[in-house]
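U., I forgot to send this yesterday:
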Amino acid sequence: MSSYFVNAAIRQMGDAGSAEAEFAGIDALIAEAEGRAEHHGPVDEAGDDPLSADERREVDEAMNLVYGAGETRPRGRGEVA
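Result:
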């Protein structure tokens, strides 16, 4: 019974490592975006689009990583997938 649990634990650690490796690129992108956004305050809900064209492109690229290119995804403020 003990060897069964050891094998199961080793397999689970391998699966977790694979998942971490698969999402490492997305995690790095999120960390970079959060670091750049630290100096910005909250978004003004009543204002125009606060993003520049370059920032909007970066957001679209990040969303493509998450949702996949060509997939339907939320476009407005406050929308969720």
